[in-house]
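Follow-up to my earlier ticket, as requested here are the two runs.
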Amino acid sequence: MRLPVIFRTSVFQLTILYVVLFGVSVATLGWFIYRSTVGYLEDQTDEVIQAEINGLEEQFNQRGLPGLIQIIEERGAQTSDERFAYMLIDASFLAVDGSYRELAGNLRFWPAGPSVVREWIEFAVRGQTPDSPSVPVRALILPIGQSSYRILVGREIRELEQINERFVRALTLGLGLTMLLALGGGLALAYSAQRRVAALNRTTRRIIAGDLSQRVPVEGAHDEHAELALSVNAMLDQIESLMSGLRHVGDSIAHDLRGPLTRLRTRLELLSEEEAPSREQVAECLDQADRLLATFNALLRIARIETGAYRRAFEAVDLGAIATDVADLYQATADDKLVELRRRIIDNAHVFGDRELLAQALTNLLDNALKYTPAGGHIDIELRRKPDRLDLIVADSGPGVPAEARERVLQRFARLDESRSSPGSGLGLALVRAVADQHDARLTLTDNAPGLRVTLSLPANRA
């Protein structure tokens, strides 16, 4: 028979273990307090009895047996509440046939056996009337001098027994109530944890079934369960985004590569019908093939960047030197297009990253800027220093990107409708975004009025 789910939760099992450990601890502490308290009261009783016996021995040594009998009778008569018990006997025949001769005292019988001497005993004494309850007495038996006389001095311990009973009852009830409350709290915690885990399981089963829109409900304060739910929801958001991006990439690959592949196949089919194809026709086919290879290489490069394969080679690099080298590389192209390439680059701008990836990102940004900036326009390359960051800015005076399309152009194969006729695969800004994510950088697109302003903000001086 399987236990209910709540009893099989780890929280409930840990609670049971805690209840057992707590119960043992409380019981041990209670027993220590009990023994300390009751033991102290017993010691006090024994000291009083021992002091009384010492006094009687002094009387025997000073006044002899008649004086001892007299003092015992007097004290027995004075103890009307029977708090003390006395008995003096002649034990000559006690060891032989169990008989003895009572000499003095307020007890009706000798409670000990023949051989009991110098030992503590406890017994019950019935009251004056038959209906009176028995009274517990603790006593000590000692021989008197070198004779066969023995004396028993005891003291009523009714109050001590009552304290003992109440203490044990309070300890038992308190321990039981404590463990019951702890068990109830454990059940409540287990139910709460099981309910939240069940919600997480329901959500994951729906996601496994294909519904990626499901999210784990976040309940109550920001405890560990809420933090787990938030983390799982963030992971699900990322997975949904990646799956959406994967579907978009598949659609884009099918859409953007179908045309070049169709043209390449048509061209090759025509060339197969000719006896001597021209160099220009072959070069055109090779150009189409190179574009296709460039697209796939860009996709592979983005995928490799996103896996973090380059992070193992990160080191301190001078972003200013990288920007200067890339600007020098594109200066001639800008001059040919009659575009002014303006620079404002600071020195000693160090970041922690990969030189090749940062140069590739800046190259892609300049490629886009040169592609869309008309003749007579300008492109600004600027490197600014902030307290804890370095901002690499590429701004052009081209047509720009509408605000509602700026997030979309950062995705793979995303191209604006008006730029479909221009060469390109729509992977340039997607690669820049992948490089930015790997360097913990912020990539923002804003209006340059006119044109587009792209800012890559990287953490400075990271090692």
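Run two:
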Amino acid sequence: MTSHLRIRSIRAREVLDSRGRPTVEVELACGDGEPQRAIAPSGASTGAAEACELRDGDPRRYDGLGVQRAVENVQRVLAPALVGFDVCDQAGLDARMIELDATPNKSRLGANAILAVSLACAKAAASVRKRPLFEYLHELFVQQARAAGAANKVLETPHIPLPMTNLISGGLHAGGNLDFQDFLVMPEGAPSYAVGLEWIVRVYRRLGRLLDEAGYEGRLVGDEGGYGPRLSEQRAALEFIVRAIEAAGLQPGSDMTIALDVAATHFYESGAYRLTATRHRQLTADELTSELSVLVDEFPVRSIEDGLSEDDWRGWQGLTERLGDRVWLVGDDLFATQVSRIERGIAEGCANSALIKLNQVGTLTETLAAVLAARRGGYACIVSARSGETEDDFLADLAVATAADSIKIGSIVRSERLAKYNRLLRIAEQLEA
């Protein structure tokens, strides 16, 4: 192995995410190249099966949310073990970090520490090989697929995924003003990514005007940039979005479709779904499935994420039987980017799509394995940001590299979201050249 491929140094620091919470940034250098930076995101709406973020718990700093212990783990445990490692051996490096952590959920060293090193390694390898990051990640993806005997499940070339963009927020993203967490749009009829992005911006602005005219001038804005009006029920949010699509001169259902993030785990308690923001109703899985089915009948809904709770496997079977041939039924908390849970979902007929979040599993290699597991089952893949995002645009390259069906970034305001949307514009130019 030549010296320019060896990891020279790894440094870490505590930085802030878009919610003002600390997270881990890593700088990794190899050979005589410039250090490459990567930052771990964090989530507000988290599933029980996710890898563990390590936080300090010291109430005197950041209300206990500091990540100095994770930073120290990078510098005192991971760096000494990885300096001199082949920067292009992503799988080996990730496996070594998992071995050093030696817990099922990365709770000793912290998934936030491990992920930041993993992503920085991939960036450094792409840089030293003078390849665009998405091309290098696609190479890793194909190699991993071949090693797993699943090369036929990987698309031949990278492509720009369909954006899934937040317009109205509720749940944990906007103070519980609605039970469902997010109401999103997808420009399915757009002839190109650039045109689709313009359509999204146009609809977002028209929606703002409609909300103003309806008396919601003092509306909140959610963690991901979506509007957070105090609407009375989920149906009102969908009606406003349909009107905004029409006001933008677009056709609901053909030009623009709707996606729902129900995030049902967060209002599931003692076997019942408690819709406290909507007349304090209590529903069974079958009853909530019926309500979702009605919304699909009446509105151009193309995707439903976490329509039921993360451990309601029987309910998910019923939901999939009812709607699986009509919409994407996306497992987020249900799967948590864990291969074992995705494979269980496939075996038991739960969902038909998987949300892919890097920090739910904690390394790039495990993330790619989750994508492959979903593809083997014929599931769609939606690569997703978190509510606590950063200016790091790695996610855009990952979505293109894995030829994801869709990418869920957030809304089209706030720089941590725009970093990804703008990166996709640049990648689209390269793919079209």
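The only thing I checked on run two: The first strand starts at residue 7 and ends at 16. Let me know what else you need.
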